[in-house]
């Protein structure tokens, strides 16, 4: 990809600056004395405040992240019932631009309504808003903290459905060397490795992963044609991370990530790719004046070729979508007494991107038009939040102000020879929007804890939603084609979350925890793909702000540990509906597209001895509608996955994994009878090496 080639030198320069700093930190005389505290480098941010549990939080530990049937992050995050991408495909067989993540059925299009952070850095693509899941290897992580709802607060803008905080593993968690090699029954392979030496009181980690395979047919046998292709995938990522102590209470953290992901979707020649280069610096102080200062830069690119389902010629070449995300965050926790944890801070994110596309005739195969579209968005947030502990009661309250801009939007179309036929410049907009949140946690006894919270938040429309139109062409069962044309909307408003919830956490017996949460969340001005009408074989939609997506429901969770056996699970029931009027009035009372009513996941694990691990996961996703008008229903799906690690000799273990062992047909797309399906029964085997 062009973006990879041009931005890699910048990442190398970044590393060249950091490595000497790291080396000087190791050479510094920082030996502990009776007057100083020992240096502890953990490579993470500041500790979560006392009232974090006022919101519905589920932590997925490293052990669970590593024990999945697929070995992929989205599989592990599905342990939190209600987690969903726009479609049911995983990051081997889906279009990357559909990898938007949401919680609580607050979706409706492919953009992420959940804020995903990796070591504090927002991971959403600056142009589309999707999450590059294939680039975030679970084996590099220490934990994933899922907060459903909760509003923006100190997290940042974008958290209208919740927040997922991913923390990288440190050298102690990884060990000196870890490596694995896996292959499945289709001959696909997965290679992963990391080296994590300790350097003085700090550490460095170099890691990499490579996944490749011929894939499976996403098209059912009855609908395949000569041009039907397997969902081929070839993805790699490499990471560099270093943590160095600068003093007894201050540490410097550096992280770099480079990735490239190439897939084939449905037809021969329908190739898609995404790539990126990320770099971040973080300074964390854990003294009396605790602070967390973060800066990052992201360069991303995306390409996609659309193949006609009738002539099987190229109809669109989205040849490049270069985008850049730049931002940072600063948080200060001044000493205000043992009963209070006060957080003051600011964060900023600047997005800049454009798409470069060539349209082709499905009949002649010649270019018919050349298009460019893009723009810039920014968000500056200021926040304050205080947690006050009064005996068994913890109170929290916070406020946030976001200054946002949407500017320099444009759309241009030219003939194949370069003569402009359309040249639009859209007016810029800006404003301030406030958010508030507050809650309470009461430890009623040693076994019962009660919590309640209310919150607001916001999400800016993505550059893709604002300025890019697209068509989806799918075959009909009668031999024709169905065309869905989705139009841009440069006038989209910001989404705003309003929500409240209450819950109880129980520990009735040692090793047994249970929790329940009832919630009511409403996203006002929610952006949805709204059907405007149809003509012949073409359905026209536009991205529009509907009045709201209103979701109410119950979330249950539990974990039991009895010796070497553990059982954990979660269940989410969500009654979600659209509130719509005016041009979108036909959607009023309907469920948002791609949002199931029921979702559940449970995992039974057994660890009979050191390095032994056996587990089985049962997951259920309820029925959901493909479209906004509830025309095509995707049936429910129940899958069984399994994982086993068995020590062989020394540091070597055998690993066995199974995906969809019951052979469930997982329908991922359904339109006028045209269907795509998800991962079939798949069995993996390989070895894992771990040197401490």
From TrEMBL:
Pfam family, one: Plug
Domain annotation TonB-dependent receptor plug: ranges: 52-163
Subcellular location(s) of the protein: Cell outer membrane
Keywords: Cell outer membrane, Membrane, Receptor, Signal, TonB box, Transmembrane, Transmembrane beta strand, Transport
Matches recorded under Gene3D superfamilies: TonB-dependent receptor, beta-barrel domain (2.40.170.20), TonB-dependent receptor, plug domain (2.170.130.10)
GO BP annotation list: siderophore transmembrane transport
Recorded GO MF terms: siderophore uptake transmembrane transporter activity
One GO location term (cellular component): cell outer membrane
Membrane topology: Multi-pass membrane protein
Signal sequence range: 1-25
PROSITE patterns: TONB_DEPENDENT_REC_3
Segments forming domain TonB-dependent receptor-like beta-barrel: 260-661
Stored InterPro entries: Beta-barrel_TonB (IPR000531), Beta-barrel_TonB_sf (IPR036942), Plug_dom (IPR012910), Plug_dom_sf (IPR037066), TonB-dep_rcpt-like (IPR039426)
Family note: Belongs to the TonB-dependent receptor family.
Protein name in the entry: Outer membrane receptor protein involved in Fe transport
Source species: Novosphingobium hassiacum
């Amino acid at each position: 990809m062009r973006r990879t080639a041009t931005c890699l030198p910048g990442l190398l320069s970044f590393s060249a600056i950091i490595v000497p700093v790291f080396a000087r930190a190791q050479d510094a005389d920082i030996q502990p004395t009776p007057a100083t505290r020992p240096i502890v480098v953990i490579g993470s941010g500041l500790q979560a405040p006392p009232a974090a549990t006022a919101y519905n939080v589920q932590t997925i530990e490293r052990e669970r992240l590593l024990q999945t049937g697929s070995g992929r992050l989205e599989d592990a995050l599905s342990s939190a019932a209600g987690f969903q991408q726009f479609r049911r495909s995983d990051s081997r067989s889906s279009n990357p631009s559909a990898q938007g993540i949401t919680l609580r059925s607050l979706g409706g299009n492919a953009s992420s309504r959940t804020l995903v952070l990796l070591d504090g850095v927002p991971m959403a693509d600056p142009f589309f808003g999707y999450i590059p899941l294939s680039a975030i290897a679970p084996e590099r992580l220490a934990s994933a903290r899922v907060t459903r709802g909760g509003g923006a607060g100190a997290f940042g803008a974008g958290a209208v459905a919740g927040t997922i905080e991913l923390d990288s593993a440190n050298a102690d968690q990884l060990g000196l060397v870890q490596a694995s090699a896996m292959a499945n029954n289709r001959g696909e392979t997965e290679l992963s490795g990391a080296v994590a030496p300790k350097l003085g009181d700090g550490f460095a980690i170099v890691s990499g992963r490579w996944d490749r395979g011929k894939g499976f047919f996403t098209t059912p046998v009855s609908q395949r044609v000569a041009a039907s292709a397997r969902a081929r995938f070839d993805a790699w990522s490499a990471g560099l991370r270093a943590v160095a102590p600068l003093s007894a209470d201050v540490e410097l953290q550096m992280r770099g990530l480079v990735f490239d992901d190439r897939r084939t979707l449905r037809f021969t020649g329908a190739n898609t790719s995404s790539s990126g280069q990320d770099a971040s610096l973080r300074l964390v102080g854990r003294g009396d004046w605790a602070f967390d200062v973060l800066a990052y830069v992201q360069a991303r690119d995306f390409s996609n070729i659309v193949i006609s389902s009738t002539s099987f010629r190229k109809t669109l070449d989205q040849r490049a979508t270069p985008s850049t995300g730049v931002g940072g965050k600063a948080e200060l926790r001044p000493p205000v007494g043992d009963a209070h944890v006060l957080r003051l801070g600011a964060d900023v994110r600047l997005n800049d991107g454009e798409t470069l596309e060539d349209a082709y005739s499905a009949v002649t195969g010649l270019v018919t038009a050349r298009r460019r579209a893009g723009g810039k968005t920014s968000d500056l947030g200021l926040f304050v939040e205080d947690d006050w502990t009064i005996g068994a009661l913890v109170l929290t309250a916070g406020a946030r102000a976001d200054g946002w801009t949407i500017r320099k939007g444009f759309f241009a179309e030219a003939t194949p020879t370069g003569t402009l036929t359309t040249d639009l410049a859209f007016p810029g907009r800006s404003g301030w929007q406030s958010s508030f949140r507050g809650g309470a946690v009461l430890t009623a006894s040693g076994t019962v804890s009660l919590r309640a919270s209310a919150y607001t938040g916001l999400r800016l429309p993505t550059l893709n939603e604002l300025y890019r139109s697209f068509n989806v062409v799918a075959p009909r069962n009668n031999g024709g084609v169905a065309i869905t044309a989705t139009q841009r909307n440069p006038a989209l408003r910001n989404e705003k979350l309003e929500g409240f919830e209450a819950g109880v956490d129980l520990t009735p017996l040692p090793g047994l925890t249970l929790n329940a949460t009832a919630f009511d969340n409403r996203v006002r001005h929610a952006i949805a793909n709204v059907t405007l009408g149809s003509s012949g074989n073409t359905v026209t939609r536009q991205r529009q702000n509907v009045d709201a997506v209103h979701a109410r429901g119950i979330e249950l969770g539990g974990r039991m540990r009895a010796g070497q056996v553990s059982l954990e699970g979660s269940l989410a029931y969500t009654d979600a509906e659209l509130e719509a009027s005016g041009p979108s009035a036909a959607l009023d009372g309907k469920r948002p597209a791609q949002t199931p009513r029921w979702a559940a996941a449970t995992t039974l694990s057994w660890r009979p001895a050191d390095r032994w691990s056996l587990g089985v996961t049962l997951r259920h996703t309820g029925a959901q509608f493909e479209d906004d008008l509830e025309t095509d229903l995707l049936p429910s799906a129940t899958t069984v996955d399994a994982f086993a690690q068995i020590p062989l000799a020394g540091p070597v273990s055998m690993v066995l994994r199974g995906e969809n062992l019951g052979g469930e047909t997982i329908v991922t797309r359904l339109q006028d009878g045209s269907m795509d399906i998800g991962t079939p029964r798949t069995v993996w085997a390989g070895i894992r090496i771990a040197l401490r």
